[in-house]
Design a protein that fits this description.
NA-bd_OB-fold; OB fold (Dihydrolipoamide Acetyltransferase, E2P); single-stranded DNA binding; about 100 residues; 1 helix; DNA-binding; about 10% helix; mainly beta; Single-stranded DNA-binding protein; single chain
Length: about 100
Amino acid sequence: MADGLIAGRIYGYAEERSGSAGSVYVTCKVKAVTDHGETVICNVIAFNDLVRNRLLTLTDGDSVALSGALTPKVWTDKQGKVRPALDMLAHVILHQMRSGEE
């Protein structure tokens, strides 16, 4: 795990959930593009109230930049190709822009 910054677009919608101990958190996916043009999916979880609330205002395709603890992962697609992914525990939301606000 390392601290990092991810910037991209919300993929789908953020969802609020509750843990077994009563903690509230939000999960979402952010689709980012690498320097080589490949897409990387970042699975985001946020416990911070401000980050949670701001993520919940975003919809599919909205831009976002987040800072937090990153963990690299890999997954295998339907064609059997191994692809990179990231998990992030988001601590700060640095930027958000709804589609069409440019």
